[in-house]
Write a structure and sequence with these properties.
Radius of gyration of chain B: 27 Å
Strand content of chain A: 15-25%
Strand order of the largest sheet of chain A: 2-1-3-4-8-7-11-10-9
Structural class of chain A: alpha/beta
Number of strands of chain B: 23
Shape of chain B: globular
CATH superfamily of chain A: Thiamin diphosphate (ThDP)-binding fold, Pyr/PP domains
Largest sheet of chain A: 9 strands, mixed
Strand content of chain B: 15-25%
Number of strands of chain A: 11
Largest sheet of chain B: 7 strands, mixed
Radius of gyration of chain A: 22 Å
Shape of chain A: globular
Number of domains of chain A: 1
CATH architecture of the largest domain in chain B: 3-Layer(aba) Sandwich
Distance between the termini of chain A: 60 Å
Oligomer: heterodimer
Helix content of chain A: 25-40%
Number of helices of chain B: 20
Order of helices and strands of chain A: HEHEHEHHEEEHEHEHEEHEHHH
CATH architecture of chain A: 3-Layer(aba) Sandwich
CATH class of the largest domain in chain B: Alpha Beta
Helix content of chain B: 25-40%
Number of helices of chain A: 12
CATH topology of the largest domain in chain B: Pyruvate-ferredoxin Oxidoreductase, domain 3
CATH superfamily of the largest domain in chain B: Pyruvate-ferredoxin oxidoreductase, PFOR, domain III
Structural class of chain B: alpha/beta
């Protein structure tokens, strides 16, 4: 049976597959008020809604940490997997290879990615698993109350005066060097930049890394760094003992390409973001690395899409997987038959 | 010459690894097998690529006792570095066939027979190609043994043919080398030893295969579609064989597309992570490793236990930490794997004892993992996994694959309600959905310990206590699904023997030797944990039960004791490991010495 309908303009409240934005929502967030991570959650919801991706075909992957809790706060209709600290890439690899039709969106943190998870992060990129990987980067361990992560700037200070003596791992530079075909950096409170980046990342066939600066409103204090996120003004107060988190308003920015924007964080400190020029060519690896480093020397945190390469085969292609997801193969696809076994066993006589 | 000893001897070839002796040894073994004689082989190799000592032992025994023998009858000594040790290893009246060109400094024993063979000279005289000479030296000792033991040359020819099937030139040069050995022995060695072999008919419909190859076939026929692994001896050959059979059997000839995926992971943490990701998404996934890899998998194993995701993990056990004895066998991971990871947990272990069970248990492990939604460990070892065993042929299951309690969209609609961790059937096993299921009730959120029946986040004390009780119930349910123990009773026997895994190979001989000493025994072979009431009954039926295993601490002994309550007073541990497969005399001595105290 078929019916003919006159095409009408889609109602503004639904997307191309007839779902409304509420269909992309998740459970209530349990993060601190004003956390940059919640902004990113909203931008993920917007991106998937606008792309018209069916939530049941999405798998939400994460490791451990504040960031890794966030998949519970978007797309409740999608299966979610809050895995093990630093090990989300391996779980994602298995899931995507088992069902190649799934859209994987992963949320990780700087500790989950650049410290405990650096090995799996690197090998995920090496294999070019088709997934979006957002690092909600605040340079600090929030969930265990404020220790340094590997993305913290060298010489930055912790709240009680401890100085980070180690070099910072730049997730974007690392990803580019490892051969990642989609590398971007953005800021949690910049929907105009971040939403298109997430949408582009979803469309990219292969691993897409978005290093998203996401201020921790509670535990960060890297004075003099490019990211200074101290959220508690009463500096002498031992926060982890009094257990009070005051929260802060969400930080939003809106600045044009090629320009520089100073952002005042919850503690009154400043970071300076610089957005890539519109005419920047993101297909030149060396140019991208050069620009990120040069900006860093100038005290600027460069944002934008740094590098794109769409020519690499993703893992399902490399493995020459059958079109049917492995998870849906039938007994007859999986068991070769008794005669074949007899023939094999004959060779062992 | 004393009276002949027919089909009862143990032969060792001592050489250095990397010298190419493997194919000569395999040809020797296969020939004896095709002569219909019960035969077993153990390859003792170093963790090295070239230049360290290696020994290959073949046990021929007309009664079917093919476990390693402690005392050797015949040694082919080709490694001057191990000469003095090799000399000691042969029993009184035995034979040393040795390379007469080596300057052997230590004194010869006067209670052995010595057959010198100038291997290098024979190779040089007969083969012009230098590289070939070294390789074919090995075939020369096959020829010498053929003549001395009376190996059937026609059978030997078929084996050489099959071994180098596609290369006629290789067949010819190998057989020429064998002929050189035969002729040399005929002309120069006066046989004064008693050892001979004769054709029998014990190997009809049998094969010679290693447990890892058998397990690989079991994985293919068990419907495995995803393998993630990190290379480690002695498990690598399992994954490599699986890859080979996948490529042979699971590629669409028209499109070249594959009904399987194999990912070599960056480490064992990632290997298990991938397997469980695939299991969560609905594929039948496995990984294989050995002790050190199992340790790395501890973190994920706890997570899988709590989140209830199917995973099959092969542990091809070996001696402890790396460097030194990683190429020696042991049953040393039983206790740690049974309770691997943090928090309360117990995992089902399958305990294959021979290649048939390697195939069967590999095949059924995927059903079990899907049915029980938990990691299932298949505990093989280096001896079983990598040595060549004479085996019955394998039969694939004729039952459909058991995918366990999975609800698709139609199933969800029919059920009308869904909670991922609700115990609907009262057996501790809940229903699950797979990602990608198009139904408003399908999705749920996987997380570690903090989830209630509906997979919602919780830190409530009640929720956690209920979850733990249900997981315990599920483990008890597993008893109904895992392979049952096998018992051989000897009427009137007051003493029992309990063993598992590759230790089984030595037990028939142990029982025979004990019987000769006047001690009748019954035998129970554990094939899985958790075990059923049959084990308790076995302890009830016997005064004492010796638990024989290849580790120091009596690991299974401790597990069994915990389960059988007061009966545990009857359990006596016979645990021994030195890296070599167990031999019967060592076990018999230990049991008899404990028996003395019982009288």
């Amino acid at each position: 049976m078929s019916t003919t309908t006159t095409p009408t303009a889609a109602a503004p409240s639904t997307n191309s597959i007839g779902l409304n934005k509420n269909d992309y929502k998740g459970g209530p967030s349990t993060l601190c008020i004003g956390c940059g991570h919640d902004s990113i959650t909203n931008h993920i919801i917007t991106s998937f809604y606008e792309l018209g991706i069916n939530p049941h075909m999405v798998a939400k992957m994460s490791g451990i940490g504040c960031s890794s809790k966030t998949p519970a706060y978007f797309m409740s209709r999608a299966h979610g997997f809050n895995s093990v600290h630093g090990r989300m890439p391996s779980v994602s690899t298995g899931a995507k290879v088992a069902n190649r039709n799934l859209n994987l969106i992963a949320v990780s943190g700087d500790g989950d990615t650049a410290s405990i998870g650096l090995g799996q992060f690197s090998h995920l990129i090496r294999r070019n698993l088709d997934m979006v990987y957002i690092v909600e980067n605040n340079g600090v361990y929030g969930l265990t109350k404020g220790q340094f992560s590997a993305t913290a700037d060298k010489n930055s200070k912790l709240k009680y005066g401890a100085v980070n003596p180690f070099e910072q791992i730049d997730i974007c530079e690392l990803a580019i060097t490892l051969g990642c075909g989609f590398v971007a950096r953005s800021f949690s409170g910049d929907p105009k930049q971040l939403v298109p980046l997430i949408k582009a990342a979803v469309s990219h066939k292969g691993t897409a890394i978005i290093d998203c600066i996401s201020p921790c409103v509670t535990f960060n204090n890297h004075e003099g760094s490019t990211r200074s996120y101290l959220a508690v003004k009463e500096k002498d107060e031992p926060l982890h003992e009094i257990g009070y988190v005051h929260g802060a308003p969400e930080i939003r920015v809106d600045y044009p390409e090629g320009s520089v924007q100073e952002v005042e964080l919850a503690d009154g400190s400043i970071i300076t973001l610089k957005k890539l020029d519109r005419d920047f060519n993101p297909t030149d690896k060396l140019a991208a690395l050069n620009l990120i480093e040069t900006s860093k020397r100038e005290g600027l945190l460069l944002t934008g899409l740094f590098y794109v390469n769409t020519t690499n085969a993703d893992l399902t292609q490399t493995l020459t997987l059958t079109d049917t997801p492995l998870a849906q193969l039938k007994d007859s696809d999986l068991r070769p038959g008794t005669d074949k076994l007899s023939k094999i066993l004959k060779s062992f006589e | 010459m004393s009276q002949s000893i027919i089909n009862d001897c143990s032969i060792t070839v001592a050489t250095v690894n990397g010298s190419g002796s493997q194919s000569a040894n395999n040809i020797l073994l296969k020939t004896l097998f095709r002569m219909g004689i019960p035969v077993g082989a153990k390859n003792l190799f170093p963790s090295n690529i070239q230049g360290l000592p290696t020994w290959y032992t073949i046990r021929v025994n007309k009664n079917g006792f093919t476990a390693r023998k402690r005392d050797l009858d015949i040694c082919v000594a080709l490694n001057p570095a191990t000469w003095s040790d090799d000399l000691k290893s042969v029993k009184k009246g035995g034979v040393m066939i040795y390379n007469s060109e080596y300057p052997l400094t230590s004194g010869l024993r006067d209670d052995l027979l010595f057959y010198p063979v100038p291997f290098k000279k024979l190779a040089e005289e007969n083969f012009t190609e230098v590289k070939l000479r070294k390789l074919l030296t090995n075939m020369i000792y096959v020829g010498v043994l053929t003549e001395l033991l009376g190996i059937d040359v026609d059978v030997l020819k078929t084996v050489v043919n099959d071994s180098f099937a596609s290369k006629q030139k290789v067949v010819e040069s190998n057989f020429k080398a064998i002929q050189v050995g035969i002729e040399y022995a005929k002309a120069n060695i006066k046989k004064t030893d008693p050892y001979r072999v004769e054709k029998m008919d014990q190997n009809k419909n049998k094969i010679v295969i290693d447990g890892n190859t058998a397990a690989a076939l079991g994985c293919v026929y068990g419907g495995c579609s995803f393998v993630s692994w990190y290379p480690i001896t002695p498990s690598s050959s399992l994954c490599e064989a699986t890859i080979d059979y996948f490529e042979e059997l699971r590629v669409d000839p028209a499109t070249g597309k594959k009904n399987f995926a194999v990912v070599q992971a960056e480490d064992e943490l990632a290997a298990l992570g991938m397997a469980l990701g695939a299991g969560w998404a609905g594929a039948r996934a496995m990984t294989a490793t050995s002790g050190p890899g199992i340790s790395l998998m501890a973190e994920f194993t706890g997570f899988v236990y709590f989140t209830e995701i199917p995973a099959v993990i092969f542990d091809i056990q070996r001696v402890g930490p790396s460097t030194g004895l990683p190429t020696r066998t042991a049953q040393g991971d039983i206790e740690s794997t049974h309770r691997l990871s943090h928090g309360d947990k117990q995992h089902p272990l399958l305990l294959p004892a021979n290649p048939v069970e390697c195939f069967d248990f590999a095949q059924s492990a995927f059903d079990l993992a899907d049915r029980l939604q938990t990691p299932v460990f298949v505990m093989s070892d280096l001896d079983l996994g990598m040595n060549q065993w004479v085996s019955d042929k394998f039969k694939p299951s004729d039952k459909p694959l058991d995918r366990g309690k999975v609800l698709d969209a139609a199933g969800l609609s029919k059920a009308g309600t869904f909670g991922r961790y609700r115990d609907v059937d009262g057996d501790g096993i809940c229903y699950r959905t797979l990602p990608g299921t198009d139904h408003p009730m399908a999705s749920y959120f996987v997380r570690g310990s903090g989830h209630n029946e509906d997979a919602k986040y919780t830190e409530k004390a009640d929720d956690y206590a209920r979850l733990m009780d249900r997981l315990k119930k599920k483990y008890a349910t597993a008893k109904n699904y895992v392979p049952k123990s096998v018992t051989q009773l000897d009427s009137g026997a007051k003493v029992g023997i309990l063993a598992y895994g590759s230790t089984d190979l030595v037990i028939p001989e142990v029982r025979e030797l004990l019987k000769a000493q006047g001690l009748k025994t019954s035998y129970l072979r554990l094939r899985a944990l958790p075990f059923g009431d049959e084990v308790t009954q076995f302890f009830k039926d016997h005064d004492r039960v010796y638990i024989v295993e290849q580790n120091r601490d009596g690991q299974m002994d401790r597990i069994v004791r915990l389960e059988i309550g007061e009966l545990s007073l009857k359990a006596k541990s016979v645990a021994y490991t030195d890296g070599l497969p167990l031999d019967a005399h060592t076990v018999v001595e230990k049991i008899l010495s404990k028996e003395k105290g019982q009288a």
